[in-house]
Structure formats: C-alpha cells, structure tokens
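Translate structure to sequence.
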C-alpha cells in the first residue's frame, strides 16, 4: 500500500499524526494509497518555514520569478501525459478530460509568465509643489489555497501560479481524495527553480483547514468547494483578519430559444451536463427550453445522444465519455436524488440507476439520467446534484426562462442558445450570474480574463486568476515623496571641514 507524504521545504515528509485517509480508485472501489492528515502543529511548522522562505522570494526580481513560471510551464508540457494519468487515476475522469484539467491550469501559468506587467504600480508626477506620488504592489507574505477533488491539477495551478508570481509563499491543502497531482506539481516547481519552502503541500481534513484559518501568519485564503464550506471558510478567515476568496456550488441553467440550432444545443447539453460525470461547478445541470414545441424537439434530440454515452474507467480508451463519481457516498446521494425526482413527479426519460459495468461492479459508476417536466420546487432542481443528471424545466417565454435563472440562489455560470443577437445581448446584460455563455455551454473565461460567480456561488470581492488574482495576492503601498532642492552656485573643489 502506497503511503503518500506532505511536501515541506522542498522534500517529501512523512506525516506524524498517525491519522490517514484512504485514496480510492473510483473505478474499482479499492484503496490505492493512504494520505496523512496533518495536525495543527504540523501545519504551524509548515507555515513558519514558508514565512522564512518568503522573505527572499518576495525580494526576488519579478522577472526572475516569472522565469520560474516559464520553466514550470515547460515542465508541465513535458509531463502532460503523466499528470493527466495522475488526475484520472484518483479522480476517475477520462484521460482526455484529465489532460484538459492540466491544460486549463497551465494556461494560467502562461499568464503568470508575464506577471511583471501585472505587478506594476502607478506614478503621479508633480501631484503638488515638488511632490511625486507612486504606488507599489507588494506580496502579502504567506497565503493558502484549499482546493477540491474535481480538478486536482487545474485549481491548484490557478491558486499557486498567481500567488507565487506575486512573491508570496503558499500553503496548498489539496483534497485528501486526490492528493498525488499536487505533490507532483510541487516536485516540478522545485525542478523549475522555486526555492525550497516557498510552496508547501500539506495534506489534511477539517483539522488542517482550521489550522490554516486560525494561523496569524497566513494572510489570505483561496478556496473552491461546496457552498456551505465556502461560507464557513470565508466567515472564519475574515473574522481572523484574512483576505478570502471562496467559491462554492452552482446550479447552471442553459436557455434554449425557439430559433436556436437544436442539434448544436443538444450536443452542448450532453457534453456540458455529463462530462466528468457532472462533477464540475460549471456543468450545465438545468436545460430550459422556451415553448412546448422547442422542448419536445429538444427531447427527441437529447434522448438518443444520452443513451449512446459510453461510461467506463479511464483505462478503457479515449472513446469513454465519462467515468465514475468520486466516492460511494456521492453515488448513493445521486441515486437518492434521482429517486426523489421520480417521487416528486418529474418525468425520468432516461434512467441511469440500474447501470452496472462488468468487471467494475464495485466502482462508483452512475449511468446518465435525464428528467423532463421538472419544476422549481423539486429537490433535483433545488440541490446541486454533482452527478450525471440533466434536468429539463420547460418555460413558456423568454422572460419566464430568464426569471428561473435569476431567482436561483446560485450564480456561477449560465448560457443561452439563440440565433437572435438582441435576445442574446439582453440576456448577457440582465442575468445576475458571473459567467455567461452565448451559444457556448461552459463559459469558463480564458486565463487572461477572470473566473468567478455571483450570489451563493462566490464569497469575496475578487475572482480567480487573471488581473483579479494579482490584486488579491498583493497589497498596495502608496508613497508621497518630496525632495527639497536648490540651485548651487557653481562647483566646490575643496574638502569641507566636518561639522
């Protein structure tokens, strides 16, 4: 049985708590490794060592820090297949999806290669008589990232790239369900030239998280996960005087107008709804066709596409559409919600409850399910299922469809499929959601923009990656300077007596 480690001061360090969490193979239901769970004392030691290392790193020229990101990016590309398999082995997603996980993280690292341009301050000449004003962006010190299981490479890279480029040291607490990718990324960062101690990977559970939140040295916390935990971390971090950006759950709607290309809309819904077994905070989980005719025509197109989906382990080849969900508990929760949808009166058009894969009967596989004629009072609509379940809620008009989206407590992502520019523009302008797609189902912004939801999908003032990340991981210092000056009456050629 493989026993994983922490990554402290540039090397693998065994845990001392005596507590471990099993790292499962979701395809087989077997334990494939054990990961140590840190004590508060272990966390405090990691933070203290990070604080020591940060001083020199923070004083390093921003361009030299960017060169580390350049070397890191090259190493990620070199080890892309290895990293993708690490992701797939512990999460269960397909290898192409695992590569996509790594790639979207790498794109943020590529922006960090140009970090010096985003770290420039401002200057005002002659703000007063002989007075100049200038501002500097300086690192916060030690910051922390607490990342989820569903993107073991992408989200750690979203956190560590900007934080380190800004001159901070980082404590990364990855999900104990998928820890190996973060540990491998730490090894690659050392190979890229990151000084020891600047990145610490400390594995743990709630005990480790609370140790981060209560440690006075940690100046900022970034989190991605469920909304209840996001609220908890945001509240505790803020009450301890830390900056916090905490991203939570989602219930992403896609509106399909009568003039939309329904074949393209159906393809988009299947990919966005069932990719990664629905374990994405940007997954489309609610389809909202406008009009009965649109809804009926969409069902005709969706059903054969959903029924053809290939479910299996990542080792079965690149034609697998999605793999297992992360745990047995997740599987049971998803099946329970499907049962509740049936009991509450939704029409289960495609039923994935009886799915079983020969040779993988103990894996956490859930077949694709599709509900039609759901209503907003049903549990399948109100709760984030986080599984391979697509729910259709029919709307009589565009305004009714828009209201469904706007009344939902979450506001992460949304999309509209239409051929009408006026409708699309109106939707983008009015909808109270942080990321909007127009004929684009999963509107995750490119890395030089910024990622973040609204309402109960996000807590904090600044988003992930892009310019907002460089604001979040730095503090601004403004200097007002005046130099008294006079005109000398010619040169002086003799030594003056000491006064």
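Result:
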């Amino acid at each position: 049985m493989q026993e994983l480690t922490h990554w402290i001061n540039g090397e693998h360090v065994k845990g001392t708590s005596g507590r471990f969490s099993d790292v499962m193979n979701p395809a087989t239901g077997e334990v494939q490794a054990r990961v140590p769970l840190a004590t508060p004392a272990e966390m405090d030691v990691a933070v203290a060592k990070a604080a020591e290392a940060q001083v020199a790193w923070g004083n390093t020229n921003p361009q030299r820090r960017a060169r580390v990101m350049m070397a890191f990016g090259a190493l990620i590309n070199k080890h892309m297949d290895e990293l993708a398999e690490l992701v797939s082995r512990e999460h269960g997603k397909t290898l192409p999806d695992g590569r996509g996980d790594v790639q979207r993280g790498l794109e943020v690292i590529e922006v960090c290669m140009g970090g010096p341009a985003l770290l420039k301050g401002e200057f005002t000449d002659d703000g007063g008589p002989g007075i100049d004003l200038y501002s500097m962006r300086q690192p916060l010190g030690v910051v922390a990232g607490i990342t989820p299981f569903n993107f073991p490479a992408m989200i750690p890279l979203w956190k560590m790239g900007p934080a380190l480029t800004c001159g901070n040291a980082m404590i990364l607490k990855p999900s104990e369900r998928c820890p190996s990718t973060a540990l491998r990324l730490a090894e690659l960062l050392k190979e890229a030239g990151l000084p020891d101690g600047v990145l610490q990977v400390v594995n743990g559970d709630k005990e480790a998280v609370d140790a981060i939140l209560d440690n006075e040295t940690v100046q900022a916390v970034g989190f991605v996960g469920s909304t209840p935990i996001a609220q908890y971390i945001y509240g505790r971090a803020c009450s301890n005087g830390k900056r916090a950006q905490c991203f939570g759950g989602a219930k992403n709607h896609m509106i399909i107008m009568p003039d939309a290309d329904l074949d393209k809309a159906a393809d988009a819904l299947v990919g966005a709804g069932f990719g990664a077994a629905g374990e994405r905070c940007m997954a489309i989980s609610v389809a909202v066709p406008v009009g009965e005719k649109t809804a009926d025509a969409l069902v005709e197109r969706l059903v054969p596409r959903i029924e053809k989906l290939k479910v299996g382990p990542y080792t079965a080849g690149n034609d697998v559409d999605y793999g297992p969900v992360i745990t047995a508990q997740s599987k049971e929760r998803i099946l329970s919600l499907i049962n509740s949808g049936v009991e509450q009166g939704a029409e289960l058009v495609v039923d994935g409850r009886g799915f079983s894969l020969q040779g993988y009967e103990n894996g956490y596989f859930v077949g694709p399910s599709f509900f039609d004629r759901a209503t907003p009072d049903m549990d399948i609509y109100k709760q984030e299922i986080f599984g391979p379940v697509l729910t259709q809620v029919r709307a009589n008009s565009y305004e009714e469809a828009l209201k469904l989206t706007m009344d939902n407590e979450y506001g992460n992502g949304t999309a509209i499929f239409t051929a009408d520019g006026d409708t699309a523009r109106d939707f983008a302008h009015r909808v109270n959601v942080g990321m909007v797609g127009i004929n684009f189902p999963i509107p995750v912004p490119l890395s030089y923009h910024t990622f973040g939801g609204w309402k109960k999908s996000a807590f904090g003032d600044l988003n992930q990656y892009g310019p907002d990340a460089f604001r979040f991981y730095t503090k601004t210092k403004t200097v007002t300077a005046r130099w008294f000056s006079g005109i000398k009456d010619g040169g002086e050629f003799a030594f003056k007596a000491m006064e």
